[in-house]
Design goal:
There is one protein chain. With 411 residues, the protein is mainly alpha-helical. It has 17 helices and no strands. α4 runs antiparallel to α5 and α7 runs antiparallel to α13.
Length: 411
């Protein structure tokens, strides 16, 4: 694999082939965060008893982890621009492993929550640095193709995290979950220490970019805000579904939680298919056109969700999962390209841009999780959730057409 240039104003590497070994490492680095987020969920009922607390309090070990994962990206991004991608990635993995081991000694729920929040700070670095490294190494449209492959980790990891956690907790107890996370973090840390290159591009004169100048440049860019909001609202359909889906299937339709879990796992196929399409077509058609395709596909899915919710009640869970399959496909097409667009506005500040995007995406996503559940309170059909999905797609369209110039050329 050709190594990225390390001198001043290095240009992105344009490789004929795909660096599968590096992408495999970046996928693993990225997956640490979302896996650690919900791998603990199956153990929460037991932890309530072990730590002598209530369900609402122990749930903070998950919800505050998500907040930590979002806000820590604002720190990890600028740090990677200032000190380099490699030390931030290695430091984050080490912090995640240390906090996972520290969790074995917790004696109350407060200490568990503190450990989880610090664990999230370490795990956030992987999400930010992986995106920045890809933009360092590739031009904008090729970066979108590579991000399409890495982004698959963001859906596979949350899907299988609870399954792994449930098996470990059942067989060995809740401590085994933290041992697993520590072992996985240390293994990826060793791999990264051996092969992860330093890809940060230095400004002329040998120094790093200035955080203030980077923030000012990004803040003044309507295109940057457009790409960030496209990523946030485009993926918002998934978060609405995440918040409202369980209530729709279990409470309104009277189905089992196991049935919801099966349908939910199947719905991830659409997102992965969209990622695959992006990896094949982004270089040919460009970032902006691919985002437009993602919007069109999500629009079709949202319209189908509204129509089925209004007229096809007898179809059961299929009335929400089939449209979600379509919207997930559109999300998979859109998201890698929106990320590539955002981190290409100021390439030497790709880490800062990546961190800001990740924080906004997760914050808006958390809001939609809450709204997805709230709109179904007291409802007898899933139509309110379907209408919310339509509103989110409209916000996506306004972000794209209102802030991202249609004549923008690839970097």
């Amino acid at each position: 694999m050709q190594q990225p240039v390390q001198h001043a104003e290095a240009a992105p590497v344009r490789e004929a082939g795909t660096p599968w070994r590096l992408l495999g490492l970046l996928i693993c680095i990225t997956a640490i965060g979302p896996t650690t987020l919900n791998i603990l969920v199956p153990a929460l009922p037991n932890l309530t008893k072990v730590l002598s607390t209530d369900a609402d309090t122990v749930q903070l070990a998950v919800s505050l982890y998500l907040i930590g994962l979002a806000t820590a990206q604002l720190l990890a991004g600028p740090l990677s621009d200032r000190f380099g991608r490699r030390p931030v990635a290695l430091g984050g993995l080490a912090l995640t492993a240390v906090m996972s081991l520290a969790a074995l000694a917790v004696g109350n729920v407060a200490s568990l929550i503190v450990v989880r929040v610090v664990q999230a700070i370490g795990a956030a670095s992987g999400i930010v640095v992986a995106r920045a490294i890809i933009r360092d190494m590739f031009e904008r449209d090729r970066a979108a193709a590579m991000l399409g492959l890495v982004a698959t980790a963001m859906v596979i990891a949350p899907t299988f995290g609870p399954l792994i956690g449930g098996l470990l907790e059942t067989a060995f107890g809740w401590q085994a979950i933290f041992l697993f996370v520590a072992a996985a973090s240390l293994a990826v840390l060793a791999w990264a220490a051996a092969v992860l290159p330093e890809t940060r591009r230095r400004a002329p004169g040998g120094g790093g970019t200035g955080l203030r100048s980077d923030l000012v440049a990004l803040a003044k860019s309507a295109s940057f805000h457009g790409y960030v909001l496209c990523a946030a609202f485009g993926s918002g359909t998934f978060f609405v579904f995440l918040g409202g889906g369980p209530h729709a299937v279990v409470t309104i339709m009277g189905r089992s939680s196991a049935e919801f879990g099966i349908w939910f796992a199947l719905s991830s196929i659409g997102y992965m298919a969209g990622n695959f399409l992006t990896s094949r077509l982004s270089m040919r058609f460009g970032v902006d056109r691919m985002i437009g395709w993602g919007l069109a596909i999500e629009g079709v899915g949202a319209a189908a969700a509204i129509a089925l919710a209004a007229f096809a009640h007898a179809w059961g869970p299929a009335i929400i999962f089939l449209p979600q399959l379509v919207m997930g496909f559109g999300n998979g097409v859109m998201l890698p390209n929106a990320i590539a667009g955002a981190v290409s506005i100021r390439p030497q500040a790709a880490g800062t841009a990546s961190g800001f995007l990740g924080c906004i995406q997760m914050t808006i996503g958390a809001t939609f999780v809450q709204l997805g559940g709230l709109v179904l309170v007291g409802a007898t059909t899933v139509l309110p959730m379907a209408l919310l999905l339509g509103a989110v797609v409209v916000a996506f369209a306004l972000s794209l057409f209102g802030l991202v110039p249609r004549t923008r050329s690839s970097h």
